[in-house]
What does this fold into?
Amino acid sequence: MFDPHSDLLTNTVFAAVDLETTGLDPSCDQIIEVAVQRFTLNAEAGHFSTLVNSDIPIPPEVSKLTGITSKDLVNAPDFNEIKSQVSAALQGAVLVGHNINFDLKFLSKRGISPTGIIIDTLDLAYIIDRDSPDYRLQTLNERYQIDPGTKHRALSDCISTMNLFLLLLGKLTETSEPTLQRLQKLASASGWPLESLFTHCLKSPSKSTVNLRNEIPINTIDETITSISNSSKYQRDIEPIIDYGLIFGPDGPLTNNLGGYEFREEQVQMAEDVARALNESENLIVEAGTGTGKSLAYLIPALIHSLQNETRVVISTNTINLQEQLQNDDVPLSLRSLIDLGVESADSAIVAVLKGRSNYLCRRRFEQHLGRTVIDREDALLLAKILLWIDHTNTGDKSELNLTRKAHNILWNKLSAEGAGYCEIPTGRCFLRNAREAAGNSNLVITNHSLLLADVATAGAALPTYELLIIDEAHHLEDQATRSLGFEINQPVVTDIFDRLTGQDSVTATSASLLRNTLSNENQLTRLNSIISTLSPTVNSVRTNFNTLFGLAAQYLENSRTSNVRGTMRITDHRGSRSWNSLTDISENIRLEISDIINSLNLLSTLSEPHLNINAVQSIQNDIGSLRTDLIELNEHLIEVITEPNPTAVYWIREGARQTYGIFCMAPVEVDEALKQNMFSQKDSVTLTSATLTTNGTFEHILRRLGFNPDASNTLPSPFDYRSTTLTLIPKDLPDPRDDRYLEELSVAIADAAVAASGKTLALFTSHAAIRHAYNRIRNLIEHADSDIEVLAQGISGDTQRLIERLRQNSRCILLGTASMWEGIDVRGEALQVVIITRLPFDVPTDPIYQARSEQYSNAFMDYAVPNAIMKFRQGFGRLIRSSSDRGIFIVMDNRLVRSRYGSKFIESLPSMTVKQCRRDELRESIELWLNQT
Ligand code: SF4
It folds into this structure.
């Protein structure tokens, strides 16, 4: 056995353990195979492996996965017969396993509870390898080229785990000594068994000789997407007249730089439009159909304009995904192409990506957390992951960390620069400041709508100054502006604020201990003690009052359930009612208590002011400042919701995750004036673009919604030939989506379509509830049809990105998706040949924002609801044909498309193609016929 504090691991025996089971629940499922592989750092040391008899039949999916059938277990021993052999195999060894808690729970249920050191390779891989898409054993085997032998069998998984452990240990050995020392300290503060490994690595003789970095691709961060120099003197080597026909033409530089590049007339047209808007200081709106290549069509003119005129262009996207696609693919491609064209200054072009504060690590907060004497095990895992990253990152950007655990995203919020204030950190050490400075020196800043709107709200505090703006995914701008200008008062936010005030490591506790050591004057010490002793009961009382308030809100929701959809209640004339008085009374108490707390914080600030030259005092002063801002804002929001509503806003209560608490919400009814006054009219040129901006062939709806007045507009159709590649099918005999029989018949139709297309299907739903209902039914129907098509569902079968990847890689599957999948998917070729829209994507009529906005129209349904739904419908359609060689079928399972007066507007919004109405029982034949045509 090894000594975690001093011994090298050389003489230690490890035991990799793995079980195969009938399911995931140790209380009712059974072990069907057990294996233990003993080893040292230098050699294997014997193994034990056996099948185990099971009282319950092996589920088909387990047999499919492991290859073990009930027949194989007929002559296998019972677990009790082999229990002593398993115990002996584990005896005296350090246990190693992948997600080992799962195996330990099953073993413990059968009376084996190892007590020694236990190492989980999943944790180890999670902190060491930031680039792995996930941390399943199978993924890591592929990544590190570990031959797993027979997949999903206990002994081969033990051997994989052993190899993975040795590989990761070798990698850890390469870590610098100071980092290992900090890891060791962290492990000790959290009671983490990995302390032994860190001690070993510190003492390892091979420390400086092994270079595993060559074997494992660890993410060392790009300097930037392009060189970030300090120069703002751009060379004027570009002729004022640029030939976009040449740049995007078949003989142009993009052909050499992008494999499979196809010339598209529409792309040239868009680039010329964007260039004109930038040169002439005009506002432009341009819809570019799927496949136009719009990113390059705005990036290239934006870069040229910036280099020619020594000016900055800001590009905003809705999602960080698109931001990263521009950063990693489109910007480097654009710059390479400009360099090939002979634009020398493109070589020194500076492109910066700027995200919201919450994306950047705050070093001060990180060090503060690391300095704690007691650290939670889960927190320690994230802190260790950051420790192994912080010396390699130039950006401090969360996206590099690959945080796959929910709890870590919550802790990250406490480590990020969001609300972190300011400290005297040496130049170049603060990631946020670095990112902002880089943006300040750049030709192009790529940001997202959220930060763009935060910049508008803070009068330019979030972005460097700019006059030229291009907004991609502009169809999301209204929603994002609504979110940015609105607010929520909910329990997690309130708890976070008051946790920062009292409790371990809170502002109060830290200031008290710091100032007690700093203040020398007896009077000041008395004042300090008096502030601290009043704060605690006031905070406790305000917490209780908030709990009562959230409880009353939930009660309100419950009482209004007959007239409202479950979970939401718009606040209209309630404020005058008697029952509202109890909320008013509580909120008044809260208001007074928060004012008292703010006074106490002010007194604390005054006491610390003479000692701001001490770094720790300065740091705590920052925390006090940010808390004060949050408390003032909380108070203002509360008064607004409960007693003093703004007539241009809408307010509602919605159900919290725990149904006993309600959440108060506010949103502006309209955002057009705010956008017009504070953004569009402030810039020389604004371009709005997206694949879906028109409804009924015009921009009228989006222009009204956003308050945008363009000088020019263009609608560029998709270059794809939908007439010969795409068929739209409308099963006209399905019940109306509001009919009780609809979901059952829909499930049958979807299963039919998926079988006819051999999978390769994406079905888009408008609610998670409908997916949950349809998922089991479709699985049954497909199994009944004796098909091996896999059914995957968003929110049921795992992480969304992984599901999309499964669809991309295993075409024999059907994916049921909602919300983000209507526009978040780009699956090309044969992997996706059928897209199904289950019902027309109208907004929920009881949604308070929808209601309030509808009231602004005389014919709200036709002028507001239908155009909104058409934009979303077109996004769904856009998932199908992603390249000129794609072929597919678009099925709309909502017969309102042919029965209602507005249905034709949806069909007319699609490109020209064959549209066929059919009976449900004709779906299979129509699909097979179309897909088999060449
Ligand atoms: S300047 Fe702000 S974000 Fe940067 S390290 Fe200091 S407190 Fe954190």
